[in-house]
Specification:
Layout: E1 3-8, E2 11-17, E3 20-21, E4 26-37, E5 41-49, E6 52-59, H1 60-66, E7 73-78
Antiparallel strand pairs: 1-2, 2-3, 4-5, 4-7, 5-6
């Protein structure tokens, strides 16, 4: 697999994957910590550095196609139509407005 690196806001990003440009801008470079295979899918855990990790559930076929193994460099490429923000609930004096 061939890929070229670029930067976005000073962070490394994947620019080309096998001569294919990607529209996804949320790309996080890391190192594979572990691959836990189940019957049909597998969980891939990626170490992003500074104590940050991200995991993805992908097919076992994708694990084999990409030959994913712990210790390999990899990218989490995130494409989403929305992001949901949450805040901690601050209940005080027996009154709670957290619903």
């Amino acid at each position: 697999m061939s890929y070229k690196h670029g930067t976005l806001f000073g962070l490394p990003v994947l620019k080309h994957l096998n001569n294919m440009k990607l529209s996804a801008r949320n790309q996080l470079k890391g190192k594979i910590l572990k691959v836990d295979e189940g019957l049909i899918t597998a969980k891939v855990v990626l170490d992003l550095g500074n104590g940050n990790v991200i995991s993805a559930i992908i097919s076992k076929d994708a694990i084999a196609d990409l030959a994913l193994k712990p210790g390999m460099d990899a990218f989490a490429i995130i494409k989403s139509t929305e992001v949901i923000i949450g805040t901690p609930c601050e209940c005080k004096g027996g009154s709670c407005n957290c619903k």
